[in-house]
Amino acid sequence: MAVVVSFAWPCSAKADVYKFVGKSGTPYYTARPSSGRASGIPPRPRDANFTWASTNLGYKEYSGQYSAAPLSVNQWVDLAAQTYNLDPKLLHAVIGVESSYDAAAVSPKGAVGLMQLMPATAARFNVADPLDARENILGGSRYLRTLLALFDQDLELALAAYNAGEQNVIRYGRRVPPFIETQAYVDKVLGRYRR
Fold first, then answer.
1. What does the DSSP 8-state code read for residue 58?
2. Residue ranges of the domains in the chain?
3. Does 1 or 93 have the greater pLDDT score?
4. For residue range 120-149, what is the model confidence (pLDDT) as tens digits?
5. Handedness of CA 176, 180, 181, 187 (dihedral sign)
6. Which residues on adjacent β-strands are paired with residue 70?
7. What residues act catalytically?
8. CA dist 184 to 17, 96, 156, 160, Å?
9. How far apart are CA 36 and CA 41, in angstroms?
10. pLDDT of residue 85
11. Widest CA span of the chain, in angstroms?
12. What is the DSSP code (8-state) at residue 17?
């Protein structure tokens, strides 16, 4: 039985999405025109011009559940979920709460990208460019898998550690720290994940 989850984000959010067509005829979408080497998108053909595409063209249904996720995000979430044995729904819940699918998001504390990686965490998990969707999702997923292992697969503690740091979860007796932000974060992610 399929569970349908809808998010309240408007699909008409203003964002530039660029499209090019590869030699095979496959269309590719990106938030910024580039060679594609860092993003995992095949390099654009020399004769292909980037054109502005409606934001809606960059979106697709993810198993009927995640219409707010850009096409490339769905691909990287699927890859990360398979690589690190995580539920793609969980990764979408984290991305939705962390950045609302804004690959260029930077928090006041310095966390960057879709999964809001702090610079030290990005370095720890070999994320060279935290603004690159693929690298950010893979690095954030690897971190989440590491936290799940550290906290004996306790999702609530892993999410608390993702938000507040594993030292804080350990310091408070392997419990969700008494930080309002962290408690709200855990509730939001679990709420989205369990819908």
1. G
2. 16-58, 69-194
3. 93
4. 999 999 999 999 999 999 999 999 999 999
5. positive
6. 59
7. 98
8. 32, 14, 12, 10
9. 5
10. 95
11. 59
12. E
- pLDDT of 77 > 70? The answer is yes
Number of H helices, E strands in the chain: 7, 3
Strand partners, 30: 18
Q: How far is CA 75 from CA 40, 68, 92, 138, in A?
A: 10, 14, 12, 11
The pLDDT score that the predictor gives to residue 52 is: 29
- What pLDDT score was predicted for residue 20? 52
Distances 66 to 26, 58, 125, 144, 173 between C-alpha atoms, Å: 22, 13, 27, 20, 36
pLDDT: which is higher, 153 or 24 = 153
pLDDT digits (tens, 9 = 90+) for 29-60: 444 444 444 434 344 334 333 332 323 323 23
* 164 SS3 class: helix
Q: Quote the tokens at residue 87.
A: 């539920």
Q: Is 182 exposed, middle or buried (0-12, 13-18, 19+ CB in 10 A)?
A: buried
CATH 1.10.530.10 fits 69-194, yes or no: yes
